[in-house]
Amino acid sequence: MEMGLSGESTASSGAEVGRIPSLGEMGLNQFAPYIMNRVIARWNANLSEELRARDITTAKMRALAVLSVSASLTINELSVLGVTEQSTMSRTLDSLEEQGLISRTPRADDLRIRDVAITEEGRAVFNEVWPVMYDGLRQMFSDIDNEECSAFLTTLQKILRNVRKNDL
């Protein structure tokens, strides 16, 4: 028996409406967070092999990727968009700054806030990594047509809005 997210049985088995199915009834392969975690874990594992040769971790890659399309961000914004805890992002930025890949500048109106920006050297490193990321993306969507991909991205954006706890 398959259970919908509303708890209603999708088969006419007489299951009570509103009952929450067990994970066993639902099945791991029907539990979206499980599948999303597996996809991202595999993506990160594949990518980390390529990044290691450039002394770039997944956290560094995420920070550089976000900064490559942003003028500058605070550590809080970067933590959210880079999907990394703030303490990890802080250590990551320390390392990126030591490598000369980012710069941190205090804001004139509030010296407690530092704007983080990618340097030209950081952009060059990211531009080396981007083709690897793009090839991984193409592999991920190799048997998926443009319409399916567009619908999938639209659905992911809706899911993100549903679970978002901040403004980013």
* Count of all domains: 2
* Low-pLDDT stretches: none
The number of strands is 2
Question: What letter string, H or E per element, gives the SSE order?
Answer: HHHHHEEHH
- The CATH level-2 architecture of the largest domain is identified as Orthogonal Bundle
Rg measurement, Å: 20 Å
Our estimate of the beta-strand percent is 5-15%
Q: What structural class is derived from the secondary structure elements? A: mainly alpha
Distance between the termini: 38 Å
Polypeptide structure, described:
By secondary structure, the protein is mainly alpha-helical. It folds into 2 domains: about 1-25, no CATH class; about 30-165, Arc Repressor Mutant, subunit A. Helices cover about 55% and strands about 5% of the residues. A two-stranded antiparallel ribbon has the order 1-2. It is globular, with a radius of gyration of 20 Å. The mean pLDDT is about 90.
